[in-house]
Amino acid sequence: MQSRRACYNVPFKIAPFNTTFVLNISPQTSPGGEGIAFIIALDPTLPKNSSGQWLGIVNASTNGTSEAAIVAVEFDTRQSSTEDGPDNHVGININSISSLVQSSLSNTKDSMETLLVSPPLNLSSYFKQEVYVGFSGSTSNYTELNCVRAWEFNGVDIVIEEDAYGGIEDQIQHSSMAPKKYQLTELMKATGGFSNQNKLGEGGFGPVYKGILGNNKEIAVKRVSKNSRQGKQEFMAEVTTIGSLHHKNLVKLVGWCYESKELLLIYEFMPKGSLDKYLFNQSSELELQYSKVLDWKTRNSVIRDVAQALDYLHNGCERRRVQFKREMKLITR
Fold first, then answer.
1. What are phi and psi of 77, to 5 degrees?
2. Which parts of the sequence belong to the Protein kinase domain (predicted)?
3. DSSP code of 86?
4. Do 6 and 134 meet the contact criterion of CB atoms below 8 Å apart?
5. pTM listed for this prediction
6. Which of 47, 135, 211, 234 is positioned for an S-S bond with 59, CB 3.0–4.6 A?
């Protein structure tokens, strides 16, 4: 069992490029194995223990993690696991041996020009500096000869566009009042990839999704829209200021995330939703639970709770000099 990488020895900065290559794959056993891949990688070094099903792309410890730092177009010649695609398929992989999209190469008689179309990929979201391009491949108990007969690569050596939110992580982590930092992969898994089924609503800064963490804790994740009026300073202010507030009538900010140009705020989840639905009976589900809108005694109690929270924000919290100018949304626990 072996694996190898062959990369161009000069790195290039992420920029538009096009590449064309001709491969010759000759099985030495029946079936052949395991495959070859065109790779774009932060590190040209071959990962340890990356033979067999790993195709020299990743190994068991880096598979599915940002540590892998690799994008690959794989030509996989043998199905080596139940998660793997069929024998003889081409796929697009990001930091993983599992393909985002794939298509079978078996029994292909027509032109392969449009056999596989990748989803839009912004490589600068995965690589923040220079990268290497080349090929990787592997064998197992099944073997084949992988030959790159020809390869042409044309790219423009330009500097990656400066991140509009550059330095945000360092500034937040230097604050003693900042809550926990979450990983994007963790939040993607918790929200089902920001699935519409988990969407709770949308505010002035972007949509909010329900999520369930690995410890079964329910959260609400606010995903700041690219077109939002909330910028770098507002985001940092919310993390470092709102994150330090503690009051029974305020929703607690439990974490934040900035990764791949995604700004995310994580709040505790309020299972009963927005108060306006109770006040105005706008939800059919609530109509089954309540025969009428909230009575005035309950409304007075709600008003008192809101007033207590506002008084805390203006007079009671430790950072009294902070002026709060935020949209106020009433929710129920």
1. -100, -5
2. 194-333
3. -
4. yes
5. 0.48
6. 47
